[in-house]
Amino acid sequence: MRVLSGTQPSHDHLHIGNYFGALRQQVALQQKYQTLIFIADLHSMSGVRDAERRRRYSREVALDFLACGLDPAQAILFRQSDVPEVCELAWYLSTVTPMGLLERGHAYKDKLAQGQSATHGLFAYPVLMAADILLYRADLVPVGRDQKQHIEMARDMAEAFNRAYGAQVLTLPEPQILDDVAVVPGTDGRKMSKSYDNGIPMFATEKQIKKAVMGIVTDSTPVEDPKDTKATVFEIWTLFAAPDEREEMFERARAGGLGYGDVKKDLLRRLLAYFGPMRERRADLEKRPDEVESVLLDGAKRAREIGGPVLDEVRQAAGFRPRI
Ligand code: ADP
Ligand code: TRP
What CATH number has the domain spanning 2-183+289-318? Predict the structure, then answer.
């Protein structure tokens, strides 16, 4: 079983929703399966048109994964652009991809609505994404629900290619939808999201984290009154508590006499303890960029060792000479 997932380098700071909703599960897979995690820097060209920003964001993604426990001895971490084979496969796939399939893509319309320019790259994004997956014969692709359609398109392209050349060279991937995990609420009670500015960052300064936690919106129930255990602050607090601790806290909340401020302070303490080792690892890695770079280069080498032979089979099926 081979697992693969990609992350666009499009952010500075992760929030705890990204961690509990995506990173934690992606990193955990490395113990069970051969796992490939890549930084989708070629994809980022549709939105980011600044070389320095792309370099910086790519570094951030690498640091985030390594800090959160991705172990380069187990998993393969690499930059998409370090594996040129993927662009070649994208071309082969594009020749069997019906226009209608791409025209039905939600992401293209959404991105246009968000103000991205209508380029061929943005339109053909699902083809490159299919190449990302099919090049490594990935079986399982853990992604957010918004990416489900892209995995279905990748399956369609794999089938179309196999059918066109009468060869079973490409493997059909299965999506694993990470949205099945609970949605982490933001400080304002809506879904935590970069776009709502309601996030609690895990790798910002302690001061910034404190500000976010203390800013969690609460109602004006007086301290002595019973509290609503469905309040956002309890929902977030629960992420950092064992089930028995949760029961105890909820009893105190229902009994009255517990202030939201105290819950927030306890949450902050737990949150910093939980992410402490990851924050340290990240700060440490940040001081050793050469080491991070060599992890990425080694990852690309290993990724090419998997993808190269697959591309060769594809080339031969289509009537081109093998390269290896
Ligand atoms: P954002 O909404 O902040 O822009 P992204 O869309 O970049 O986040 O999401 C990256 C990953 O993090 C996705 O797999 C998504 O499912 C997960 N994720 C984002 N926000 C949350 C949240 N509030 N709760 C759970 N998972 C989340
Ligand atoms: N499109 C994905 C996103 O925006 C990132 C991505 C690119 C990806 N290629 C992939 C995810 C291949 C999984 C597999 O989140």
Answer: 3.40.50.620
